Amino acid sequence: KAGVTQTPRYLIKTRGQQVTLSCSPISGHRSVSWYQQTPGQGLQFLFEYFSETQRNKGNFPGRFSGRQFSNSRSEMNVSTLELGDSALYLCASSLAPSGGRNEQFFGPGTRLTVL
Amino acid sequence: AQKVTQAQTEISVVEKEDVTLDCVYETRDTTYYLFWYKQPPSGELVFLIRRNSFDEQNEISGRYSWNFQKSTSSFNFTITASQVVDSAVYFCALSEQGGSEKLVFGKGTKLTVNP
Fold it and tell me: CB count, 10 Å around CB of B7?
């Protein structure tokens, strides 16, 4: 069974640009969550999607947005990039929202560098 | 608010030594889940264990063992006879109540096992 895949794996952008990251969950998984990992702030929750609906959102500015498609694939978008957006963006999938009962599987991440 | 504290930022040991990674959590929920993840240099978070708040039994899996104590809000992780391949960053995490998949992570402990 294929794991969680994220594309692209590496990305370099300049300030002011926008970027779209993609996450394909494990087959049969319908819940997708996104996290941002930086050396200073650690792992921080961005959003959670289930059945194409955003169920939960972390404390990030409106420049960060996401969506989920009918096949459970998810994308996140960051507009007007800032230097501080440089981070590893991790996606996780699980069967369905469960408050921790279902195991979440993480993808390899997309490393975004903003110059 | 929920919080996970991993006071040890970095630990360095020599191969075959035993090492314990500490995790202290804060939550007002009575039902919650605790997790440990391993992040090797490749970046992907690897699930190690999940424990629910009603199960305080210690668990052993090979060289890994976990000690969950609700009285002290701790969920510590011990690696026995450490190996070089155990070198990684280890994260402790807490689930959020309400059926969300959101995880609150500690800052992580970087473990280096030297030959």
Answer: 11
